[in-house]
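User: Quick sanity check before I run a bigger batch. Here is a single chain. Can you write out its predicted 3D structure?
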Amino acid sequence: MAKQKRKEENAPEERLEADRRLLALLAAQCGEEAGLHRPLNDVVGGVITGIPEDTDLAQALSDRETTDLLVQLLDQNREQVERALERLREGAYGICEGCGRAIPEARLKYQPAATRCVECQAHWDRLNGRTA
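Assistant: Done. Predicted structure follows.
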């Protein structure tokens, strides 16, 4: 019985650690595949001609911008997971950092990286110009 209780207590940490590793890996792979860490000239396979109508260049720029946004979102999610892990280590996991009330268990089960209750998260999203 004690062994099962200990496993349940570690479940959020194990899931959050796994999520953090996966998000970091996805961001790195996505950036590498899109060539975000290489000069654009290398990505398009030759000399950039300077003609803005060049379809290959336009596509490469568009792809690079899209991938960069995706990598940023993955990094933001990883940072949120790291914040939840920090709160877990501090003994504050499951307590809303906005209002101080307990975050419902169903929310933590669905979104283990949550550090705010639904109401406080919605308020924070509005203040920071984010949409669901």
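Helices lie at 2-34, 40-43, 55-90, 105-110, 118-127.

User: Great, the batch can go ahead then.
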